[in-house]
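We treat protein structure as text, and this decision shapes the records that our systems exchange. Because each token names a local backbone shape, the row as a whole describes the fold. For reference, a complete record is included directly beneath this paragraph.
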Amino acid sequence: METKKRNNIIVTTAFLLLISCIVILAYSNVKSSLKGSSRGNLVGRGIRSEGPLKMRTGLNNRFYYDNKQVYLNVELKADKVEVSKEKTPLNIAIVIDRSGSMDEKNKLTYVKKAVENIIDNLDEGDYVSIVAYNDEVSVLQKTTQVESRYNLKEKVNGLKAAGFTNLSGGMFEGFDQVSKSFKRGYVNRVLLLSDGLANRGITDRFKLADKVRELNRDEGIVISTFGVGNDFNEDLMTDIAEYGKGNYYYIKDAEQIPDIFAHELSGVRTLVAQNTKVIVRYPANYRSLSRTFGYPYEDEKRSS
């Protein structure tokens, strides 16, 4: 009998929408008695619907049993749903990097225009707070319901770029502000606008990502990031968004700003579901998880 080999499974997860309240179990029930060719008809197949969600799974190689490495792709899509005339209310913190590096190449100017666009799209009843940081963290506006858009814009327009970059401190203050007015049924989210060039506070991207995941898990607050400048730290800004269950954008120039924030704000107001989990179970005695692409994951390392 052929010796059983310990194979790697690499899971690629593509999430096309924020989705919640549904737990979809994707099983890879591989029996040791099966031969690779007998499972070939599953390649590119495997579709399951659950409420408004459709899940498609597939392996990249039908002979996975005899291969040392196999990719499993899991893709979730949401059906088109009728958009309610009533918008989902927002509870957001806008976190602005005003460190010295933001003085280069109109970065802070782009950020100010972006924040103005956000403020213009807020409705009465939405909650908003504004945090600015360099090596120090300042709360320009404590969390409050939207009243005077003009006053909010004036506070942002008065910012000057200077100092070092305590990105973690500004981000954590944003989480605190959202937490203070956290409401179920609202979109509770931090919007971080920065070049990601952190040099004070927590600067390690992996430690920051772990902290963001912890905050998202414990407090249910999402964070989206907006990178500015050609020299921004894309890895850091992407990690924060992925582990915070939010979206990541790159603001290349001012003309992109309306479309970017129209996409972000319209998307979060029309959520189909939120905090969905995909659980992939596999026989750990014969296979091991190498890594995933596209979404954070946790390996529980069960024996079966």
About this structure: The domain at 90-269 is CATH 3.40.50.410 (Rossmann fold). Residues 205-219 form the longest helix (15 residues).
